[in-house]
Amino acid sequence: MYLVTFRLDPGEYDEEFHELNDIIQAVAEDTDGYLGKRTWNNTESDEVLVVYYWKSLNALNSFGDDTNHKRAKQRWTEWYDAYEVTVTEVLETYGSGFGDDADPPR
């Protein structure tokens, strides 16, 4: 499994951002190997952290090849003050679990 951590400092979102963001999320959900996402918001700094779960690197790369996703990445300066993406391979997970709502779905 792979995690893509998308850390961002939001700027100004316009209607086009929201439309493109919805399209990209739908593309992710339709990509074979997409397992889900979790989002956290830091109320003190407005920083947002989104973690996307992928079954394989091939699945992630397939999503990364999407035209809408590429277009959004080219326009990041219009919508974010800063961002950082980290791709991590998960070697092991353990703990008590979070029940049926756990991410990624098991």
TrEMBL record:
The entry's keywords: Plasmid
Keyword presence, Glycoprotein: no
Keyword Coiled coil part of the UniProt annotation: no
SUPFAM superfamilies tied to this protein: Dimeric alpha+beta barrel
Top-level taxon: Archaea
Identification of the protein by name: DUF4188 domain-containing protein
